[in-house]
Amino acid sequence: MADMASLLIKNGTVLDPSQVFERRVDLFVQDGKITGLGGHLPKADRTIDATGCLVMPGLIDMHVHLREPGDEEEETIASGCAAAVAGGFTGVVCMPNTKPPLDNEGQITFVIREAQQVNLCYVWPTGAITKGREGKELAEMGSMLEQGAIAFTDDGVGVADAAVMRKSLQYARMFDAMIMQHCEEQSLSGGAMNAGLMATKLGLPGIAPEAEELMIARDLLLNRGIGCRYHVQHISTAGAVNLVRQAKRDGQRVTSEATPHHLLLTDECCRTYDTNYKMSPPLRTGADVKAVIDGVKDGTIDVLATDHAPHLAEEKEHEFPYAPNGIIGLECALPLYVKALVEPGHIAWMKLVELMSTRPAQVLGLKKGTLQQGADADIAIIDPQREWTVDPGQFKSKSRNCPFAGWKMKGRVMATVVGGEVKYELAR
Prior knowledge:
By secondary structure, this protein is an alpha/beta fold. The protein has helices spanning 77-86, 105-118, 141-147, 162-175, 197-202, 209-223, 238-249, 261-264, 286-298, 313-316, 333-342, 349-364, and strands at 7-10, 13-16, 21-24, 26-30, 33-38, 46-49, 54-57, 59-64, 89-94, 122-125, 178-181, 193-194, 206-207, 229-232, 254-258, 303-304, 379-389, 408-418, 421-425. The strands form 5 sheets. Strands 3-2-7-17-18-19 form a 6-stranded mixed sheet, covered by helices on one side. Strands 5-4-1-6 form a 4-stranded mixed sheet, with no helix packed on it. A 4-stranded parallel sheet has the order 11-14-15-16.
């Protein structure tokens, strides 16, 4: 096997939370690994001038829907990975709510094999907690782990049966595997937007915040004596943030994630009946947004994800109550988080990179999210001053369901390096 081309990234500001390192230095890559950081580095086969840019560990998204197998007209592993590297992500965790669901070792193997053939970024599949994601009988979690499943979730629905959930926590604990829960009590779900004054004004059925909070509270109680690694997906309410905060104080093994839309948008957006504002969990109130931001600031929320959920235009053209939930987000997530968190002064760039790279790697148990010497050369190069306007028509994703179209952004991905190879580069 021939040696890989060497790469020199020069004149950039290297930002690495794993080393608490922020300095203008050059970075050298050889054979897919980071082999030099500093000055007077050797000549390389290829050089990228990162003047004015931040050089950071590649971003990791813990919550992505790639739709393959089954809904390839919405997204494929290939198009989803292309969107990922365009957004600075060098690895994504894909959800199992495909058709058929990822609930057996054959489906896990399929996703990993397809991702390797695409060869753009790492794809780590999650396996379903229950067979068919029906919430009744545990899937073969052990065999899926052996084939490369990184965690387990029935994402799209929460596991409603407490006895089944308890078994899943006990079983996952045997392998020290992680359970990721879509927290929504089904008897309180079924609405189209957040329950409250705006839903009443619009005549739309609501989803109460208690739907999210009840399931989190139940799961934390079930897990208290089990000690499984438990992850709350797309947290959205003030009560949910408080539950996780208290559980962390009590020493529970709980982590959580937030999304850009739950930091930037509220249920007021739904007054236009634009289905790009329909998602699960729904957009909440301004008070909830503030609580989620506070959770990011104080460490209650560990990870910033996207919940990238592609849908066909004709599906999103249905009436609001009947349109599918979800929006795409891989290609604009970083600047959206800059707008939500960095520009208002809630967190610094170092913390943002930690939440989007170093911390997701730690939560997932991956040796990623670092620019230390000898680490895999997974790198994102960002121009923090580059201004641009979101145009979903230019996205690499196959879908266009994005509520941020026309938003003016600051911060652009200039290049993405995965395993030492440049997988994306924006024309200058």
